[in-house]
Amino acid sequence: MKNSTAFAMLLLLVMVLSGEGQNWNITSRKKEISKNSCDLYTGKWVYDSSYPLYDASSCPFFEKQFGCEKNGRPDKNYLKFRWKPSHCFFPRFDGADFLRRLRGKKILFVGDSISLNQWQSLACMLHTAVPQSKYTLARSGGLSEFTFPDYNTSLTLLRDGFLIKIVNKKAGRVLVLNSVSQGKSWKGFDILIFNTWHWWLHTGRKQPWDFIEDGNKLYKDMDRLVAYEKGLKTWTRWVDLHLSSSDIRVFFQGVSPDHMNALNWTAPNARTCIGVKRPLLGATNNGVVEEHPAERIVEKVIKKMEKPVELLRVTPLSQLRRDGHPGVYGIGRHRLPDCSHWCLPGVPDAWNHLLYASLYFSAS
């Protein structure tokens, strides 16, 4: 009997350390994924035959641009990787539990098409968890709202590439660094996830402004990282002033890396993400990836805020997923290969898994 008990305890310990046993009672493990005992963002991608978490064909509202499998991608391994923190238990995503906890709550994603990627992912994850539950989807301009009436819960997406204003003036289109863009539309939500970065790098025809206004001065251009930091500081001041209530949870989605240049991530015989079929299998803390310069700025400005804002540090773990982009299996095909957005199911599912854990199991 003693040997049986000892064996059972040993097996339990092995399962915890290996990350198996993902269906254990989540509430019994809250302490193991608190900020004090667990870094959810240090870890690696592991193959999991039970993945993906949903079938894109089961989401009737699915965006064609993210459906790599439906768009003809022949390899399937990219669907089978699960994020695994190195030193702590990470519960399997439970969409039904997530919805129960979200009952009566309103979530807002604010950002560019990377926010669309994450919003689309979460909507599919939750719909798959409760396929018989009614839902509504309304779209108007840059605003999309997905609701679960049975739970009185909504997931809203507001497209906003910069979080600060672009206005038309005599000189032309001006990016105004000291004024947020749509602050009134950010109010009235319980949980907000902000994101901005990719549009700050656009030049030429893709650049939506002609000048940058910083205070009383107008510039034809400036260092984009400097402009980014000034814009983020404007956003932080607005959040501190208008979203200070402890009942409001605010997150900033870390910088989503692209894989357009293989020189940045060491891939033999690969110039971009095209044709890459496997992730980098090293851990995020062993020198495989370098800290993104824009991520350093985000971390710096958030630390100085009065309002506690949690950074979803998706950058390092996403840098490992060079295989996760649409490439030639997006809407642009070979003409406009996509190494910025992510296939779904895929990497943004892990971001939402981390959001799930951060919202309800991390220390506030």
Automatic annotation (TrEMBL):
Pfam families: PC-Esterase, PMR5N
GO cellular component, one term: membrane
GO molecular function, one term: O-acetyltransferase activity
Compartment annotation: Membrane
Trichome birefringence-like N-terminal domain boundaries: 37-88
Domain Trichome birefringence-like C-terminal: 91-357
Keywords in alphabetical order: Membrane, Signal, Signal-anchor, Transmembrane, Transmembrane helix
Membrane topology: Single-pass membrane protein
Signal peptide limits: 1-21
Family: Belongs to the PC-esterase family. TBL subfamily.
Protein name in the entry: Trichome birefringence-like N-terminal domain-containing protein
Lineage, broadest ranks: Eukaryota, Viridiplantae, Streptophyta, Embryophyta, Tracheophyta
